Amino acid sequence: MISTPSDLPADAQTVALAGIGGDLGGRIATALLARGVQVRALVRSGSTVPVPGVTAVAVDYADAAALVAACRGADCVVSALNGLEPVIRDAQGRLLDAAVAAGVPRFIPSDFSLDFTGTQPGDNRNLDLRRAFMARVDRTPIRATSILNGAFADLLTGDAPIVLQRPRKVLYWGDADQLFDFTTKDDVARYTASAALDPAAPRFLRIAGDVVTARELAATMSDLTGRPFGLWRAGGLGRLGLLIRVVRALTPASDAVFPAWQGMQYLRDMASGRGKLAPLDNGRYGTVSWTDARTVLAQGL
Fold first, then answer.
1. Distance from CA of residue 4 to its chain's centroid?
2. Surface-to-core class of residue 141, CB atoms within 10 Å of its CB (0-12 exposed, 13-18 middle, 19+ buried)
3. 3-class SS at 79?
Protein backbone atom coordinates (compact mmCIF):
# COMPACT_ATOMS: atom_id res chain seq x y z
CA MET A 1 0.00 0.00 0.00
CA ILE A 2 1.26 3.49 -0.86
CA SER A 3 0.50 6.23 1.63
CA THR A 4 1.08 9.97 1.43
CA PRO A 5 2.75 11.81 4.33
CA SER A 6 0.10 13.96 6.07
CA ASP A 7 2.17 17.15 5.96
CA LEU A 8 1.99 17.36 2.15
CA PRO A 9 -0.92 19.07 0.35
CA ALA A 10 -3.51 16.75 -1.15
CA ASP A 11 -2.80 18.03 -4.65
CA ALA A 12 0.99 17.57 -4.42
CA GLN A 13 2.57 15.98 -7.46
CA THR A 14 3.98 12.51 -7.06
CA VAL A 15 7.36 11.44 -8.41
CA ALA A 16 8.43 7.79 -8.29
CA LEU A 17 12.19 7.70 -7.81
CA ALA A 18 14.46 4.71 -8.40
CA GLY A 19 18.01 4.79 -7.05
CA ILE A 20 17.47 6.84 -3.90
CA GLY A 21 20.24 4.88 -2.19
CA GLY A 22 22.85 6.38 -4.50
CA ASP A 23 24.59 9.72 -4.01
CA LEU A 24 22.72 11.52 -6.78
CA GLY A 25 19.42 9.77 -6.08
CA GLY A 26 19.40 10.95 -2.48
CA ARG A 27 20.07 14.51 -3.57
CA ILE A 28 17.25 14.36 -6.13
CA ALA A 29 14.86 13.14 -3.42
CA THR A 30 15.87 16.03 -1.15
CA ALA A 31 15.40 18.54 -3.97
CA LEU A 32 11.95 17.15 -4.80
CA LEU A 33 10.85 17.29 -1.16
CA ALA A 34 11.95 20.93 -1.01
CA ARG A 35 9.41 21.62 -3.77
CA GLY A 36 6.57 19.99 -1.88
CA VAL A 37 6.58 16.85 -4.00
CA GLN A 38 5.38 13.47 -2.77
CA VAL A 39 8.46 11.30 -3.35
CA ARG A 40 7.77 7.60 -3.76
CA ALA A 41 11.09 5.80 -3.40
CA LEU A 42 11.24 2.43 -5.14
CA VAL A 43 13.59 0.32 -3.04
CA ARG A 44 14.50 -3.32 -2.82
CA SER A 45 12.99 -5.25 0.07
CA GLY A 46 14.97 -4.75 3.27
CA SER A 47 16.69 -1.57 2.06
CA THR A 48 16.76 1.51 4.25
CA VAL A 49 15.73 4.91 2.90
CA PRO A 50 18.44 7.52 3.58
CA VAL A 51 16.19 10.55 3.08
CA PRO A 52 13.46 11.29 5.66
CA GLY A 53 10.07 12.37 4.34
CA VAL A 54 9.82 10.02 1.38
CA THR A 55 7.42 7.12 1.01
CA ALA A 56 9.32 3.85 0.60
CA VAL A 57 7.81 1.19 -1.64
CA ALA A 58 9.54 -2.19 -1.71
CA VAL A 59 9.81 -3.52 -5.26
CA ASP A 60 11.22 -6.55 -7.01
CA TYR A 61 12.36 -5.58 -10.49
CA ALA A 62 11.59 -9.12 -11.63
CA ASP A 63 7.94 -8.73 -10.58
CA ALA A 64 6.39 -6.74 -13.44
CA ALA A 65 2.93 -6.45 -11.85
CA ALA A 66 4.30 -5.15 -8.55
CA LEU A 67 6.51 -2.66 -10.38
CA VAL A 68 3.52 -1.37 -12.36
CA ALA A 69 1.58 -0.95 -9.11
CA ALA A 70 4.47 0.99 -7.58
CA CYS A 71 4.51 3.41 -10.52
CA ARG A 72 0.74 3.85 -10.87
CA GLY A 73 -0.49 7.36 -10.08
CA ALA A 74 2.92 9.01 -10.39
CA ASP A 75 3.24 12.18 -12.46
CA CYS A 76 6.81 11.28 -13.41
CA VAL A 77 9.24 8.41 -12.91
CA VAL A 78 12.85 9.44 -12.30
CA SER A 79 15.64 6.91 -12.58
CA ALA A 80 18.88 7.52 -10.74
CA LEU A 81 19.97 3.91 -11.08
CA ASN A 82 23.68 3.47 -11.61
CA GLY A 83 25.47 0.43 -12.91
CA LEU A 84 26.33 -1.58 -15.98
CA GLU A 85 24.15 -3.49 -18.44
CA PRO A 86 22.12 -5.46 -15.83
CA VAL A 87 21.12 -2.15 -14.24
CA ILE A 88 21.00 0.43 -17.04
CA ARG A 89 19.51 -1.87 -19.67
CA ASP A 90 17.66 -4.58 -17.75
CA ALA A 91 16.43 -3.13 -14.44
CA GLN A 92 15.87 0.35 -15.84
CA GLY A 93 14.17 -1.20 -18.87
CA ARG A 94 11.71 -3.00 -16.59
CA LEU A 95 11.11 0.30 -14.79
CA LEU A 96 10.41 1.99 -18.12
CA ASP A 97 7.98 -0.76 -19.15
CA ALA A 98 6.21 -0.48 -15.80
CA ALA A 99 5.89 3.30 -16.13
CA VAL A 100 4.34 2.90 -19.58
CA ALA A 101 1.96 0.16 -18.41
CA ALA A 102 0.94 2.27 -15.39
CA GLY A 103 0.11 5.24 -17.61
CA VAL A 104 2.78 7.52 -16.12
CA PRO A 105 3.08 10.49 -18.50
CA ARG A 106 6.78 11.24 -18.06
CA PHE A 107 10.09 9.45 -17.55
CA ILE A 108 13.59 10.77 -16.76
CA PRO A 109 16.24 8.08 -17.42
CA SER A 110 19.52 7.84 -15.57
CA ASP A 111 21.71 9.59 -18.14
CA PHE A 112 23.37 12.48 -16.23
CA SER A 113 26.52 12.59 -18.35
CA LEU A 114 28.25 14.48 -21.11
CA ASP A 115 26.49 14.63 -24.47
CA PHE A 116 26.51 11.02 -25.67
CA THR A 117 24.48 12.01 -28.73
CA GLY A 118 27.71 13.40 -30.21
CA THR A 119 30.19 10.76 -29.11
CA GLN A 120 31.35 7.82 -31.20
CA PRO A 121 29.75 4.41 -30.58
CA GLY A 122 32.31 2.00 -29.14
CA ASP A 123 34.47 4.71 -27.59
CA ASN A 124 32.83 4.78 -24.17
CA ARG A 125 31.19 1.73 -22.60
CA ASN A 126 28.94 3.61 -20.17
CA LEU A 127 27.77 6.08 -22.79
CA ASP A 128 27.06 3.22 -25.20
CA LEU A 129 24.67 1.79 -22.60
CA ARG A 130 22.88 5.13 -22.36
CA ARG A 131 22.73 5.44 -26.14
CA ALA A 132 21.17 1.99 -26.42
CA PHE A 133 18.65 2.81 -23.69
CA MET A 134 17.79 6.06 -25.48
CA ALA A 135 16.70 4.05 -28.50
CA ARG A 136 14.54 1.85 -26.29
CA VAL A 137 12.87 4.84 -24.61
CA ASP A 138 12.15 6.45 -27.95
CA ARG A 139 10.21 3.38 -29.09
CA THR A 140 7.69 3.88 -26.27
CA PRO A 141 4.83 6.42 -26.07
CA ILE A 142 6.05 7.95 -22.80
CA ARG A 143 7.39 11.52 -22.80
CA ALA A 144 11.05 11.23 -21.83
CA THR A 145 13.60 13.84 -20.83
CA SER A 146 17.33 13.15 -20.57
CA ILE A 147 19.36 15.56 -18.47
CA LEU A 148 22.95 15.97 -19.63
CA ASN A 149 25.31 17.81 -17.27
CA GLY A 150 28.86 17.14 -18.46
CA ALA A 151 31.14 15.88 -15.71
CA PHE A 152 30.27 16.16 -12.03
CA ALA A 153 32.23 19.15 -10.74
CA ASP A 154 32.62 17.39 -7.40
CA LEU A 155 35.21 15.15 -9.09
CA LEU A 156 37.58 18.10 -9.51
CA THR A 157 38.58 17.67 -5.87
CA GLY A 158 38.26 13.91 -5.78
CA ASP A 159 38.60 11.04 -8.19
CA ALA A 160 39.14 12.84 -11.50
CA PRO A 161 42.88 12.99 -12.32
CA ILE A 162 42.77 16.57 -13.59
CA VAL A 163 43.80 18.98 -10.83
CA LEU A 164 46.94 17.50 -9.27
CA GLN A 165 47.73 19.14 -5.95
CA ARG A 166 51.21 17.81 -5.20
CA PRO A 167 52.99 18.63 -8.47
CA ARG A 168 50.71 21.71 -8.76
CA LYS A 169 49.68 20.82 -12.29
CA VAL A 170 46.49 20.57 -14.30
CA LEU A 171 46.65 17.44 -16.43
CA TYR A 172 45.14 17.55 -19.90
CA TRP A 173 45.15 15.71 -23.21
CA GLY A 174 45.05 17.42 -26.58
CA ASP A 175 44.28 21.14 -26.40
CA ALA A 176 44.63 23.18 -23.19
CA ASP A 177 41.90 25.52 -24.44
CA GLN A 178 39.24 22.87 -25.04
CA LEU A 179 36.08 23.79 -23.12
CA PHE A 180 34.86 21.36 -20.44
CA ASP A 181 31.38 21.24 -18.85
CA PHE A 182 31.16 20.74 -15.08
CA THR A 183 28.07 20.66 -12.85
CA THR A 184 27.85 19.82 -9.15
CA LYS A 185 25.63 16.97 -8.04
CA ASP A 186 23.49 19.34 -5.97
CA ASP A 187 22.88 21.57 -8.99
CA VAL A 188 22.02 18.53 -11.12
CA ALA A 189 19.59 17.33 -8.46
CA ARG A 190 17.84 20.70 -8.18
CA TYR A 191 17.51 20.98 -11.94
CA THR A 192 16.23 17.40 -12.20
CA ALA A 193 13.54 18.18 -9.62
CA SER A 194 12.40 21.15 -11.71
CA ALA A 195 12.37 19.05 -14.89
CA ALA A 196 10.37 16.31 -13.17
CA LEU A 197 7.61 18.87 -12.52
CA ASP A 198 7.71 20.30 -16.05
CA PRO A 199 5.10 18.61 -18.29
CA ALA A 200 6.57 20.37 -21.33
CA ALA A 201 10.21 19.39 -20.74
CA PRO A 202 11.89 18.49 -24.05
CA ARG A 203 13.63 15.24 -24.94
CA PHE A 204 17.04 16.63 -23.91
CA LEU A 205 18.06 19.27 -21.41
CA ARG A 206 21.71 20.30 -21.36
CA ILE A 207 23.17 22.13 -18.37
CA ALA A 208 26.58 23.17 -17.08
CA GLY A 209 27.32 24.84 -13.79
CA ASP A 210 30.57 26.10 -15.32
CA VAL A 211 32.40 25.85 -18.63
CA VAL A 212 36.17 26.06 -18.27
CA THR A 213 39.41 25.03 -19.93
CA ALA A 214 42.47 23.31 -18.44
CA ARG A 215 44.30 26.61 -18.78
CA GLU A 216 41.60 28.39 -16.79
CA LEU A 217 41.64 25.72 -14.10
CA ALA A 218 45.39 26.20 -13.67
CA ALA A 219 44.94 29.97 -13.37
CA THR A 220 42.18 29.51 -10.82
CA MET A 221 44.30 27.19 -8.69
CA SER A 222 47.23 29.63 -8.85
CA ASP A 223 44.94 32.39 -7.62
CA LEU A 224 43.36 30.30 -4.86
CA THR A 225 46.59 28.88 -3.47
CA GLY A 226 48.94 31.79 -4.10
CA ARG A 227 51.35 29.32 -5.70
CA PRO A 228 51.83 28.81 -9.44
CA PHE A 229 49.95 25.91 -11.02
CA GLY A 230 51.21 24.80 -14.40
CA LEU A 231 49.82 22.77 -17.27
CA TRP A 232 50.85 19.19 -17.91
CA ARG A 233 50.11 17.93 -21.39
CA ALA A 234 50.07 14.14 -21.19
CA GLY A 235 49.82 13.76 -24.95
CA GLY A 236 47.40 13.91 -27.84
CA LEU A 237 44.11 12.09 -28.19
CA GLY A 238 45.76 9.28 -30.14
CA ARG A 239 48.11 8.53 -27.26
CA LEU A 240 45.19 8.63 -24.84
CA GLY A 241 43.30 6.14 -27.00
CA LEU A 242 46.30 3.80 -27.03
CA LEU A 243 46.66 4.08 -23.26
CA ILE A 244 42.99 3.23 -22.79
CA ARG A 245 43.40 0.05 -24.83
CA VAL A 246 46.49 -0.97 -22.89
CA VAL A 247 44.97 -0.31 -19.45
CA ARG A 248 41.76 -2.08 -20.40
CA ALA A 249 43.67 -5.13 -21.66
CA LEU A 250 45.68 -5.32 -18.43
CA THR A 251 42.68 -4.81 -16.14
CA PRO A 252 40.93 -7.96 -14.86
CA ALA A 253 37.26 -8.16 -15.74
CA SER A 254 35.05 -6.81 -12.96
CA ASP A 255 31.63 -5.32 -12.30
CA ALA A 256 33.14 -1.92 -11.44
CA VAL A 257 31.17 0.92 -13.01
CA PHE A 258 34.18 3.22 -13.21
CA PRO A 259 37.44 1.31 -13.62
CA ALA A 260 40.44 3.45 -14.53
CA TRP A 261 40.02 2.92 -18.27
CA GLN A 262 36.36 4.00 -18.12
CA GLY A 263 37.33 7.30 -16.52
CA MET A 264 39.92 7.73 -19.26
CA GLN A 265 37.20 7.19 -21.87
CA TYR A 266 35.25 10.06 -20.32
CA LEU A 267 38.36 12.25 -20.39
CA ARG A 268 38.81 11.46 -24.08
CA ASP A 269 35.21 12.42 -24.89
CA MET A 270 35.70 15.68 -23.01
CA ALA A 271 39.10 16.45 -24.52
CA SER A 272 37.91 15.72 -28.06
CA GLY A 273 34.97 18.11 -27.72
CA ARG A 274 32.56 15.44 -28.94
CA GLY A 275 30.77 15.38 -25.59
CA LYS A 276 30.49 19.18 -25.35
CA LEU A 277 27.04 20.44 -24.36
CA ALA A 278 25.42 23.05 -26.60
CA PRO A 279 23.19 24.91 -26.43
CA LEU A 280 22.76 25.08 -22.66
CA ASP A 281 19.33 25.10 -21.03
CA ASN A 282 20.49 26.60 -17.73
CA GLY A 283 17.84 29.32 -17.76
CA ARG A 284 14.79 27.17 -18.45
CA TYR A 285 13.62 27.26 -14.83
CA GLY A 286 14.42 30.86 -14.04
CA THR A 287 17.44 32.50 -12.50
CA VAL A 288 19.52 29.93 -10.64
CA SER A 289 22.79 30.40 -8.80
CA TRP A 290 25.05 27.75 -10.33
CA THR A 291 28.15 26.53 -8.48
CA ASP A 292 31.23 27.36 -10.51
CA ALA A 293 34.50 25.45 -10.68
CA ARG A 294 36.29 28.07 -8.57
CA THR A 295 33.88 27.49 -5.68
CA VAL A 296 34.30 23.72 -5.89
CA LEU A 297 38.10 23.98 -5.97
CA ALA A 298 38.14 26.43 -3.06
CA GLN A 299 36.02 24.07 -0.95
CA GLY A 300 38.49 21.29 -1.65
CA LEU A 301 41.51 23.19 -0.34
1. 28
2. exposed
3. strand
Mention every residue, 6+ apart, whose C-beta is less than 8 A from residue 66: 59, 60
Dihedral pair phi/psi, residue 186, rounded to 5°: -65, -40
Indicate the SS3 state at residue 78: strand
**pLDDT of the chain, 301 residues: tens digit per residue:** 333 343 445 468 999 999 999 999 999 999 999 999 999 999 998 888 889 999 999 999 999 999 999 999 999 999 999 999 999 999 999 999 999 999 999 999 999 999 999 999 999 999 999 999 999 999 999 999 999 999 999 999 977 779 999 899 999 999 999 999 999 999 999 999 999 999 999 999 999 999 999 999 999 999 999 999 999 999 999 999 999 999 999 998 878 888 999 999 999 999 999 999 999 999 999 988 999 999 999 998 8
DSSP state, residue 40: E
Angle at 119 between CA 266 and CA 192, to 5 degrees: 70
∠132-135-138 over CA atoms, to 5°?
150
What is the end-to-end Cα distance of the chain in Å, rounded? 48
CA 100 vs CA 142, 170, 221: distances in Å: 6, 46, 48
